[in-house]
UniProtKB/TrEMBL annotation, chain A:
Membrane topology: Multi-pass membrane protein
The organism of origin for this protein: Actinomadura graeca
Protein name, as recorded: Cytochrome b/b6 domain-containing protein
Keywords for the protein's UniProt record, in alphabetical order: Cell membrane, Membrane, Transmembrane, Transmembrane helix
Gene3D superfamilies: Transmembrane di-heme cytochromes, Chain C
Amino acid sequence: MPPRDPAHEPAPDAATDPAASDRPAKDAGGRGSLWLARFTRAERSIHHVTAALMLVCIVTAAFLYFPPLSTVMGRRELLKTVHVWCGFALPVPIVLGLASRAFRSDLRRLNRFAPHDWEWLRRSDRRAVRKGRGVLPVGKFNAGQKLNAAFTAGAILVMLGTGEVLTFPGPWPDRWRTGATFVHDWLFLTILVVTAGHLWEAFRDRGALTGMFTGRVDREWAARHHAGWVDAREAHGKAQVRPQEAEADGSSGEEDPEFAKRRPGMS
Amino acid sequence: MDEEERAEGSPVGRRLVLGMLGLGVAGVAVGASVQQKLSSALAPAGPIGDVLPAAGGFRYYTVTGSVKKRTPATWRMDVNGLVNAPRTFTMADLARLPQTVLDKDFQCVTGWRVPDVRWVGVALPDLLQAVGVSPAAKAVRFSSFDGTYTESLTLDQARRRDVLVATQMEGGPVSHDHGGPVRLYVAPMYGYKSLKWLGGIELTDKVRPGYWEHRGYDVDAWVGRSNGRDDAPT
């Protein structure tokens, strides 16, 4: 599954983050800012290629599917060909990406839900920041990102399977074909909603976008959004790096081990 | 990644992925009947059919770029080839021929079906009689005025009373998006045989496969007996 864009919150303002007002400018390379390596080049490539294929699939699907768009656009065969090729190509970057150690370890992070992830989902103040630090020890990915990654992986697999039945209907009985159409249709609408939500969350958080497009994030942003990740890195002696060094360091540390041992509801 | 992080928490992501796969398989298994119920439940909701999957109705397939509209006043249809009297028909000409009403399903080869659509028009055998079919003719070729879409029937198929040059659908004129002002409706066959935007009919000495048939669909597209399907015929 692709690593989804980090951090689902708006840039904090002075009201939620008292430290924000007196913090120096933290644009890329700004004086006094420290940067943490977040995504390797391989991980970013996997994300961007998957995202591009997914968007082409969604746009062609919309033209094939919504009657008002279909009738304006026409050219069904061309759209279908593009849709089918991009659809079957969707898992390729992910499978190739398994060669990357950093990607594999991020997949493990996305897979595992620690107690604070359940709490993140439950609490309405999950994104609150106190003294420049998120109130929950969120790891490298928050629970929303983990759910999004799992949903996207499952959706790609289900769309691949049902898409195969629709593209090569020959051997399949009628009921299966109709059933595959049913699943493909309704899951498309769900993917549309989830992807729109994902893009919405990503585009309103400049720090998260920076992480996905340059591979590194501002340490203060990380402390607000992924406090547990920052703690674990520092506990394991990963030095904060200046921008020019950030690219080289892809791996990173763990969640807070003490917190991790608690069961849900105990934290 | 170090060992302690690997052990942390439970593998919820994997369970979610497996759960979705299970739902997907279940959806394929029961989808046919669920979709049928949904379609009839959503049918009265009208424009929602533009957004939700086949909610009570048609899906629109267009093979070319956007099709230029023809009004009933500008519409013409040439009937030629192996006929005794080649002729160009207007809407008024069609209206003067005997009119046939059919209440029949419209079924797409991909599986969706719109039940009991009321079609009105000229039965194809009545039209063929008006131009006189030459004894050499064995098949009929249809073309649409969008310039791309073609279809064919054998002469025997074309002489069925449930094959219509349709001018009305569901109590009104056939809309542009549904292939109006005049489309073909071949009741016993899958939807792709019912050519939209009918603009020409040619009598030929043998069947010439049409647009979809060049793309792998059966030429004799009987509902329930072709394209690998065995659904109940309409």
